[in-house]
Amino acid sequence: MFSVGGMDVFAVTHDTVHLETITDEVSLSTPSLHQKREGNLKGLKNRDLIKQYGKKKALKVLEGQMTIEDRNLYDMSLIRAMYSTVCLKWWIAIIMKSCAAALQVTYPLITHQLIDQLTTAHAYHNDPANNPPPKSVVYSFGLAFALFAMVQASSLFSYQALQKGSVIGFRMRGALIDLIGSKSVKLSPKAKVEMTSGKMMTMVPADASFLDFSAPMTLDLVMQPVQIVVGLGLLIWTLRYSALVGLAVLALVGPLQSFMFAVMVRISQSQLTYIDARVRLLSEAIASIRAVKLFAYVSFFSNKVTELRKKELVFLKKNGFYRASMNATMAFIPTLADVLTFITYGLTGHSLTPAIIFSGLQYFNVLKTPIAFLPMCFTAISDVLMPEGVNVQEDARWAVNVKGDFEFEKVNESKNDNGSAETKKEQAKIEEKPFRLEDIDLRIPKGALVCIVGRVGSGKSALLSGMINEMRQMEGYSVFGGSVSYVPQQTWIHSGSVGDNITFSAKKEEIDFARLNAVLDACALRADVQAMPDGDLTNVGDKGLLLSGGQRQRVSLARAAYAQSSIVLLDDPFSAVDAHVAHHIFEKCIVSGPLACRTRILVTHHLALLPRADWVVVMESDGHKVGRMAQMGRYDDLRRQQGPFGSPLNEVGSATRQSRAHTPTSTPTMTSFKPPTSPPKECREYEKKTSQGPMEEDRQTGSIPWSIYATYLSAMGTPMWSLLFGSLLILTQGNNIYAGLGVGIGLFTFGASYTMFLAGLRSSYTLYARAWEHVMKAPTKCHDQTPSGRIINIEMLDDRMAFSWETLLVNGLSAIGTFGLILYSYPWLGLAFIPLAIFYYIAGSYYRQTCREIKRINSITRSRIYSSFGEQLASSAVIRAFGKQSAFQRRMQDAIIAEGVSKFDSRFKVVPTSTGTAQQAYILTLVIQRWLGVRLDLTSNLLILLIAIFGVIFRDAVNASSFGVVFSYALSAAALFSSLVSLYAQVEMEMNNAERIIHYISLPAEPPAILASDPKIWPSHGPSSKTYLSDTLPRHPGFSRN
């Protein structure tokens, strides 16, 4: 369970449609849908989705503690916090769901009365002397219209409840992503060992997204037990105690489904281990793609990902087996329950009239889904520890006061039960201990320049890490006498402009351009910025203009120089710059520039700088991964001492003595650094320029090409999969005719489901493997222009696509069979199908094109969340050192904007975005689905009304049994007809995932490492010569040619 404590987390949703009339509220109409037409959907852009649906309203997820009436404080779990946030709207949805359920379990009573009236009328017409007369035609018409009203009202209530439940899930999903993002920059070192980057990257697309479809299911958890009890009472009232036989058979479904579902959950949890490992490996490989290609590790990483995917497939196949078994169970047991119930009812001496049979079948249809339904389990989110944070005391005597021992967290070994106890003991003996610092006692006065030196591995960088709580402090304390800035040795550049990286994405009205200009000069960035296409507005990071290692180091240093912090931690900032640039930075930035009057702690290997320091700290290691402070003092004092670094210091002493005499003191007055009073031209024009961002992700328009379907089907391999699935599917439908072959229904359903699953899994594995291979072999330029989040956001097809296709094909064949039965019984009703088919086609085309384009936009915008979250994970130490957790939390919220969440100011009040409102792709997807369902259900219910009116008009001639068959099929098929369009659209939206994967398959590839013309055995040695070799950078705006 995700332990909640600390700050508040917010999300925003769109509670209601901007409606003009009460009819729009009931029918889920929205003006944006009326304004869109088929012809202008192909170019739908993100900006077209604004001001279309809903009003922004802040949602506060209480993260912390709640005060109970007795004034005691109780820790709140995540589920309790979410319930406290949405309880009112959840109960409104429950009321609507209860109304829908009440109508569903009672309209079979009207069906019973209607068929009974038709039976009486038909019998009275044939033999008036021996049969009682029926009630008036007006009464029968009243039953028909009452049935239509109940079915339609049930549909409206159901869709309203589903819409509100989906919106609740959407709200919780946005809040949970925001919560995970805020937690990621606050994890303690111990928590980071358990909560790896791969696991946290899996949380955002997997665990958080689980709330989307689990929230509506909570409504069923409450209402379905009540629906079962009421339906059971009405079924017993209709079929007497014979109904208990069928209910006993249906009751078998519950334990059986519970067992299979529990097994599926365990399998999925085991699979998560390999998913986390694969995501972590993908992130590392893509983030370090240049090193991967330079050291020829492309094949290595490709093979490792393939191995992990194969391990995933083992669990996916097991999961598919149990899923197909569940489908087969639901296909076989209800049929068996119906047959046994009516046999028992007939054998006990009761008369099986059409009214009894068909109303009983409706009750069984109402009950079988709730009885088989099992609650979906929420994915548990592991507890995380909050860090102690940087202890800042502004009134402290010392700028830095550190005392105690520090230790890096130990990485837990993977669990392995194999092997004897002796083997485990031997493994424990040779297990390496984590690096630790002992006997640290450091007090630094305010405004001093302190240099930390030592050999490699002596603990210089570890000392800075311990100060900012990146190492676990075993004992002692760390106190800062002011705010802190941190320049790590491994530089971090986030997506944004150069100015954004230096100012931590501050708003333009908050930027001090004079200070920014002085920092650019002090860090030797002026010439680099002037050579960039858009100056300091040029986009860098993931994945803008390429920066060299020295440029990245200077931008990182400029970030600390711009920040108005009292203490600056510099971890070897000269490691990636040339000697003359290092001299410029030291003189113009550290000694007499923006950092001159601050407390500076500098880790360096440049011993020539030590004479300029106020204080020198020498670190050493004992060779057993334990670092200590060996010496500490002024440079002249340490040079005369006999310590571990006495000889190296004496070597540089004579060389630096003269330079020291001609340089100013290391701690100048505040007036020694005076930034320019007016900003330069490029800063004055800051508001006029537009930043050059990364390459926009390609988005196809229009319908999914047939070539995508062909590629997906061809990836299944042999066409025998399709032939086998088609044959089993047809046999499944044929067995529905004979109740005695119910076992065949289950067997063929299992065969069709599992066959389709294996075929889809094969296609998914093949496409994903080919896409990953082409991503790794793509030129570096493609990676430079594509943020890593986009590549990681390749949604795998796996089981979801296969079962979507299977559901569509099964329902399609069932719809064809229903149409055929109605036409066979009443051929003239075929005339009603013509306008029905036209309406379905128009509504389906309208819905598919709208939903398809919004799905494409949503797929692209979701990549921004992964990119932003990945950057945040990579920079947690820097963010925490600068104290910018809140700023990056808002940045994460900005990334969620594209899915309907607005942004917040420092007080977490809703503020408009640059476009005036949030982008609303995801929320529009929800309302469009409900919009289509309401209208298709209305059409199907009108067909039911038409059949009922036909039966009433011709009640003297209509055979009640034939009418009951047709009417029961029409009632059960109403939802079937409505689902066909949405299912087809769902399949097409899922094919958008295949389209995105195939896009990566079509990426240009580098030449192969081994050509077919190469000899099989290469010579072990030989001469190499170069003639007329000329190297040049490509003329591309992404390269700085200076």
Count of helices? 33
Q: What structural category arises from helix and sheet content?
A: alpha/beta
The CATH architecture name of the largest domain reads Up-down Bundle
Low-confidence stretches: 1-25, 30-76, 374-389, 411-431, 651-697, 733-741, 898-919, 1037-1042
Whole-number count of domains:
2
> Cα distance, first to last residue?
53 Å
Largest sheet: 9 strands, mixed
Rg over CA atoms: 35 Å
Largest sheet: spatial strand order:
8-5-6-15-14-7-13-12-9
Supply the CATH class of the largest domain.
Mainly Alpha
CATH superfamily (homologous) name of the largest domain = ABC transporter type 1, transmembrane domain
Amount of helix: 55-70%
So what's the overall shape? elongated
CATH fold-type name of the largest domain:
ABC transporter transmembrane region fold
Annotation, overall tally of beta strands: 17
Biased composition (Basic and acidic residues): 681-700
Region (Disordered): 639-700, 1022-1042
Keywords: ATP-binding, Membrane, Nucleotide-binding, Transmembrane, Transmembrane helix, Transport
Organism: Cryptococcus bacillisporus CA1280
